[in-house]
Amino acid sequence: MAGLHLLDRNIGGEYPRFATDADLRAFEETPYRERIAAESTYDAIRLGAAHNPDAPAIQFLPNSDPADKPIVISYRDFFARVTQAANAFHALGVGAGDVVSFLLPLLPEAFITLFGAEAAGIANPVNPLLEPHQIAEILESARTRVLVALGPMPGTDIWQKVEQVRGSLKHLKAIVQVHGPGDPANGIYSFNDMAAQPSDRLISGRKICGEETAAYFHTGGTTGTPKLVRHSHTNQVYQAWVVNLLLKSRPGKNLLFGLPLFHVGGSLTQGLSTLSGGGSLVVLSGAGWRNPASIKNVWALVERYKPETLGGVPTVLAAALGIPPGSADLSSLRQVSGGGSAIPVAVGQMIQDKFGLPVLEVYGMTETSSVHTIAYSDRPIRLGSVGLPVPYSRVRVVKLDHEGKLERDCAVDEIGVVIMAGPGVFGGYLNEQHNKGAFVDGHWVNSGDLGRIDKDGLLWITGRAKDLVIRGGHNIDPGPIEDILFQHPAVALAAIVGQPDAYAGELPVGYVQLKAGATVEPGELEAWVRERTPERAAVPVQIYSIDPMPLTGVGKVFKPQLRWDAATRALTKILVPLTEKGIACSVRVGPHGSHGSMATVTLVDVPQDRRDAIAEEVHTKLGPFVLRHEVVFK
What we know:
- By secondary structure, this protein is of the alpha/beta class.
- It is built from 18 helices and 30 strands.
- The chain is globular and about 80 Å long.
């Protein structure tokens, strides 16, 4: 197939430039449906494989070591194995509306399972690090028919979890074991036996329509009841198409891959986009970026595999900055992209200053099939902004009433709720009860985030209307943890909020108002939560006792006040070295008209000739935080 963009019927030898809004609108004059060359993810991967069947689709590095010889799967073999997987699932009774769930690390078999499941029915990738009861709830909510899971292996407890939850899954008909012999008499089949299936056609004869459901992705936090997002094939193919378009991806190029497949950033933004675009996924071990070797070797891996884009969540990018590149040849890199949570401006600035690379921050959610806005590489980069809507998508910032109904659109730079529409926006959650309030003004999905749109049309995220705490890319629902605190006999009121953290983005902290006359011992409440929640990441790192708890006019806890207090405590601690030098320093975090929140650092009685140096020290210490700050001298 001619052209750079394998999923686009119209793009030839050069990618279009989007230097102006007029360029973008002119591009959009051709309807999206006339551009797209694939109806389904299966078709999309077929196009990627047809470009150069002998090229590597996946290069798996078991130890994330650039010196190792990778396990290579060519496009010809990868597409054949996806087809065989689809046929094996069909033989196990999977039809277009049936679900294949999987619990797998980042092995080549995980990619084959994901897209084979979507070709046979509906894929449901599940985080294998969740607790068994959480896994069981997701699998049962999805009405899982076939479960693919890693067999017994040292260093992983996935199979033990499968054995724990299997009996509670009423719809389960078969289990497929990866790296295991299987046990057909007990409904367990070996993944390797899929090779007996035909590889040249779908034996179901299925012709997949774009509107059909491709996958469910669980969202809503690692604690609390998960929501299952329904993605159509159109949703997912659009994500692959638009990412390749805006990153100007080229067939034959490598991408360092370390994001999990139960996250849309891994499965779609990086996975499907690369595989449908004729690129190669260099998979950084089964643990991905969670493997310390992946970070330690990052620059040697760049030199060895020469990716054009380095992409990851902000914690990965920040950790990579801490690794000296030495003499590694990084000349292949054209750009850095990141999302999942906000990239601290200081991290983006360091990448630009240190490597001379543009930082393309993205914004989206599972419900938009991942990337919905991006900093356009053809325009000046505004660090801190998440850019503009991707082609054929739209963003609005609106005011909602107390029932979540639309009141009006916000003015330029006025903060409101971010809502989004476009081909990537999902059609709703699997459980109809979860759809209440999910959409605004018809088909616009309510992000739950607060933001503003500036005079240039750039979107700036200023906070969250919803209360999730995002710890290193993991969503933590405060509700269940607050419920546990409320059960303590001394607690009258409780709230969990995110405290800024330079590495994790946020850490959960708790606030309690004790009952009249009640007391607690230091660490008592933290221990109380730790003993009663299965999710270690959700345990508050600190619980503060305050009286009174800040409340709204209708008696709800006013969480912005708590977030400001938590941020004040965190930043004050960071600046302790200044006070130890005898410099009077105070921090106040509060609301800000443009940025949502702002930290004001006040320094008292600093001599004029020392002010620049002290201010620079403050900026250096607070730079890694997403929260904006200013320095004031008195």
